[in-house]
Amino acid sequence: MKSEYNVQLVNKRVLGDTCAVLTFSCPEIAAEGRPGQFINLSCSKFLKRPFGIMCTDKVSGTFSIGVRKVGKGTEQILTANEGDQFTVLGPLGNGFDFDGVGKLILVGGGTGIFPIFFAAEYASELGIPVTVVNGYRSKADAFLYEDFSKITENFMVTTDSGDLGIKGNVMACLSELDKAITDGATCFVVGPGIMMQKVSEWAMANGLSCYVSLEQRMACGIGACLVCVCKIKAEQEGKEFVHKRCCKDGPVFRAEEVIW
Ligand SMILES: Cc1cc2nc3c(=O)[nH]c(=O)nc-3n(C[C@H](O)[C@H](O)[C@H](O)COP(=O)(O)OP(=O)(O)OC[C@H]3O[C@@H](n4cnc5c(N)ncnc54)[C@H](O)[C@@H]3O)c2cc1C
Ligand code: FES
């Protein structure tokens, strides 16, 4: 049974017009949260909203999430001020497995860049060489640019507008990566579905292990309501796919088992 905590917003870092990093005091999630896991956060609406954990700080007993304004729930969350109280359920989901990973290529897009940050920080703490490729809309949208730059020298960005990094999407960068970076690497991807699909195809074509974090609409977040099911290739003969719960069986899945 996952625990629910009453938490306080202790820091709010505004990133442009539509995003912010929110830091909450919660020693339990700070201690247990792993990259790829998420939390469910209360808002003015009935259902809590899911957000990937962006980082934890065991010393201060805090964890952070990055939030982008989408609808009413995120709009209200982003109006919160330091000192405000929330209810949080978590940490939820399976997270990324770093066991046996010799080197890592992290690919982020959209709000997937927030949980990718946690994976980058964690990998560098473990001493795993890490390359990060983030896809942004434009330079103005390039949140956490400085933060990633501090973690790894191998930080590359693409922008749709072309005003920062390579013009185009993440594929424009991945297809040019040096063999010294790609050979034997594992790839973790978080972002829009089409981006994860394309990166998965690229990774599989190049013989890399690849893991994606699926994003489905969620309600309970703990495997009880089946709102979040996704199609995963069946291992059983005669069956094309099985339904798995994104919140409990995932959100991280092996790329080759996902039916896009
Ligand atoms: C595992 C996971 C991790 C996520 N991590 C982040 C993150 O780090 N940062 C971030 O900004 N956003 C993240 N999201 C998306 C975020 O949960 C939605 O943007 C948010 O729930 C929208 O709520 P709303 O009330 O503003 O929008 P509305 O559209 O009003 O929401 C209506 C309902 O749909 C659900 N919903 C809407 N969009 C999504 C979505 N994309 N994914 C899941 N449920 C959705 C809401 O939870 C709510 O129940 C994540 C989603 C999942 C599933
Ligand atoms: S959100 Fe209820 S089962 Fe996944």
Task: Explain this structure.
This protein has helices at 27-32, 72-78, 113-126, 145-151, 170-174, 179-182, 193-205, and strands at 4-15, 19-25, 38-41, 49-57, 62-68, 85-92, 104-109, 130-136, 155-159, 166-167, 186-190, 209-213, 229-233, 241-245, 252-254. By secondary structure, the protein is of the alpha/beta class. It folds into two domains: 4-92, Translation factors (Elongation Factor Tu (Ef-tu), domain 3, Beta Barrel); 104-213, Nucleotide-binding domain of ferredoxin-NADP reductase (FNR) module (Rossmann fold). The strands form three sheets. Strands 10-9-8-7-11-12-15 form a seven-stranded mixed β-sheet, with helices on both faces. The longest helix has 14 residues, at 113-126. The model has no long low-confidence stretch (mean pLDDT 95). Bound molecules: flavin-adenine dinucleotide and FE2/S2 (inorganic) cluster (FES).
The gross shape turns out to be globular
What's the mean pLDDT score? Answer: 95
CATH architecture descriptor of the largest domain: 3-Layer(aba) Sandwich
If helices are DSSP runs of H or I spanning 4 or more residues, what is the number of helices? 7
Q: Structural class of the helices, strands and pairings?
A: alpha/beta
**Looking at this structure, what is the CATH superfamily of the largest domain?**
Nucleotide-binding domain of ferredoxin-NADP reductase (FNR) module
What is the strand arrangement across the widest sheet?
Answer: 10-9-8-7-11-12-15
* Number of distinct beta strands: 15
Q: Quick one: CATH class of the largest domain? A: Alpha Beta
Question: What is the CATH third-level topology name of the largest domain?
Answer: Rossmann fold
Euclidean distance between termini CA atoms:
31 Å
Bound molecules: flavin-adenine dinucleotide, FE2/S2 (inorganic) cluster
Stretches where pLDDT is under 50 for at least 5 consecutive residues are none
Percent helix range: 10-25%
